[in-house]
Amino acid sequence: MAHSMDFKIGIIGGGQLGKMMAQEAKKFNFTVNILDPTPGCPASSVVDHQIVGGFYDDDKIRELVKCSDITTFEIEHINTQVLNELVAEGHTILPSPKVLEIIQDKSKQKRMLNKNGIPTARWVMLNDDFVETINDFGFPAMQKACKGGYDGRGVCVVEKPEDLENSSMGESFLEELVPIEKELAVMVSRSTKKEIKCYPVVEMTFDQKANICDNTVAPARVEESIKNRALELAVRCVEALGGVGIFGVEMFLTSDKEVLVNEIAPRPHNSGHYTIEACITSQFEQHLRAITGLPLGSTELIIPAVMVNLLGAEGYQGKPCFEGVEDILRIPGVNLHIYGKKETRPYRKMGHITIVDKDLNRALEKAETVRKTIKVISEG
């Protein structure tokens, strides 16, 4: 069967995920249009056309969708009302705005998971009369905002009822603070033709100060039965959503070896960056294959990998400057990705480094050296 392959892909969001998606789209010679409020955003250097506008600007969203064959997104905080209208008018937006609506509200996401028998940490909605609710629920617990949280925002630990009285989080729920042995993640792709493929189970470590994923280790160092359970749950999540595209399914492995689903990202995800160097098909290429109805690529792990996020150093703000680049690039297996953000600030994601090595322990040692060596500071 012959394919013209002259797809016009629209991406809502021009950050690092949009940039890496556009880089892969160019392998297929797709045309890429993006919508982003920042002129000169990371993706702008590799796309055909940028519409400068916000993610809640109906006119600009319409403009992007109308000049694209298929529209996708790299960010969840978008006006879904206009997306639903555009789908009703016959435009293709994947994953569908209905999926995005469920994911945008973490309480809706939890209800969807529980309704489909997918295990999560115990949780309860908070209403005005929360004193009784929280006393029944027990301490300590996590308070999570229903909407708008990402990269550690919209989440806090509650140790006593007074902590909630001072909260300015808005609509939120309480979640049991489960004893966690590891945080796991699985990237799952599902195509327009309902083909499904999973990437290997990985483990994530977090920067406690910033509450941002800090390290991704592929493959996860857990027994086979836990990997199989995680893969099974990840597939069930994406099937329950009826999602098309790539999804990052984050999970907790509890100290009593239970696997609980934490949350789902309806887009390429930080925990899947390692796939660019370590797997036959990267998560970004797989997403494009899924939404254009092409056969999904192999998700096989070719070589173990550790991905380290490159965050802006504390105490620096302004035009970024990278210390230690030459030192880390002398290390075999080090792959540096600089996102091209015009300004650094503490804990901002400025890039990532993937270290590949046939020996995972050696990759972990190299990752430790990389972390200590490279630093994002500001000029002047």
TrEMBL record:
**EC annotation from Swiss-Prot or TrEMBL:** 6.3.4.18
Which pathway does it operate in? Purine metabolism; IMP biosynthesis via de novo pathway; 5-amino-1-(5-phospho-D-ribosyl)imidazole-4-carboxylate from 5-amino-1-(5-phospho-D-ribosyl)imidazole (N5-CAIR route): step 1/2
Q: Which residues form a coiled coil?
A: none
Question: Which chemical reaction does it catalyze?
Answer: 5-amino-1-(5-phospho-beta-D-ribosyl)imidazole + hydrogencarbonate + ATP = 5-carboxyamino-1-(5-phospho-D-ribosyl)imidazole + ADP + phosphate + 2 H(+)
What are the ATP-grasp domain coordinates in residue numbering? 110-292
Q: Which GO terms describe its biological process?
A: 'de novo' IMP biosynthetic process
Q: Which SUPFAM superfamilies does the record cross-reference, listed alphabetically?
A: Glutathione synthetase ATP-binding domain-like, PreATP-grasp domain, Rudiment single hybrid motif
Keywords, ordered alphabetically: ATP-binding, Decarboxylase, Ligase, Lyase, Nucleotide-binding, Purine biosynthesis
- Give the highest taxon in the source lineage: Bacteria
Q: How does it assemble?
A: Homodimer.
Tell me its family: Belongs to the PurK/PurT family.
What is the protein name given in its UniProt record? N5-carboxyaminoimidazole ribonucleotide synthase
